[in-house]
Design goal:
Elements lengths: L1 E5 L4 E3 L5 E6 L2 E4 L7 E10 L18 H6 L5 H4 L14 H7 L4 E7 L3 E7 L3 H7 L4 E8 L2 H12 L8 H5 L9 H11 L2 H4 L8 E3 L12 E2 L7 E10 L2 E4 L3 E4 L6 E6 L1
Parallel strand pairs: 10-13
Antiparallel strand pairs: 1-14, 2-3, 3-4, 5-11, 5-14, 6-7, 6-8, 8-9, 11-12, 12-13
The structure holds zinc ion.
Amino acid sequence: MKISGNILKMKSELEDVVHYELPIGDQSINMNALLGEHITLQFEGQINCIKCGRRTKTSFQQGFCFPCFQSAPEADPAIIRPELDQAHLGISRDMEWAKKYSLTEHVVYLAVSSGLKVGVTRASQYTTRWIDQGAIHALIIAHTPYRQLAGLIEVELKDHFADKTNWRHMLSNQIVEGIDLLQEKSKAANLLSNDLQQYLTEDNTLTRISYPVSQYPQKIKSINLDKNPAYKGKLCGIKGQYLLFEDQYVINVRKYGGYFLNIEM
Ligand SMILES: [Zn+2]
C-alpha cells in the first residue's frame, strides 16, 4: 500500500505502550501496526508550510515558510524560551492565539529522557510533550496561570537542572539510572525564590511512559531526506518523535513537518 501527502508530527496517546499515528494528507497511519514491517519513505522535493500551506523551498523551525517563521505566533522565540513571552502584558504576534496558548495554565516539570531535565509546557498537553521528548518518567512540579511565569521558574532551575535532552542517549536507551524525581522536586522547591514558591504543586503523581521499541539502535545514523530523498528499512521502534530502524537509522518525523512524502508499506 502507498500513501502520499504532507506529513505532520506524530500524534500520540499515552497507553500501556504509547500509541502513535502519523498524519499524512487527510489520512493517518497507525505506526504501531507497522512495527517489524519494511517501509519506504520517499521525498520528491515538495514542502508546504504547516501554517499557511504555501509551497516553500526551505522549512524553518520544523515546518514554517519564511514569512510564517517571522510572523506566526507558533514560531515566536517565546515558544523555545517561555520566559520571553509577553502576552500577560498584552504583547504578542497574535493576541487571539496568545489567549489560547500563552494566557492559559502552564506546568513546569521534571522528566527523565536521557538524564534529568526541567521543562515548561501547557497544562492541557503535558503528556504529549513528555512523549515527544521520549521521557520515561516525569513529574509536574509547578502550575502557573500563564506561560511567562512558568518560564521564570524554569530559568531559576536551569542553573541546577539541564533543560535539554541528549537525543542520541534517549534513542539508544542510555538513561541515567537511579534518579528519584520526588527527591529532585524537593530540591527544586528549595532552590526557588520566595515569590515563585506559591506555584509549586502538592500533587506528586509520577507518570511512567513505555514506548513501542523492540530493538534500540546503538550506533545511531540519521536519515536526511534533503540529501537522500529515499529510504527503505525495517521499523523496529518509535520513541519521542523518532522512527527507529533495524539498520541503526533513525528519522526525526517532526523535522519533516510539511514535507510531501510517499510512504510505502
Ligand atoms: Zn507559511
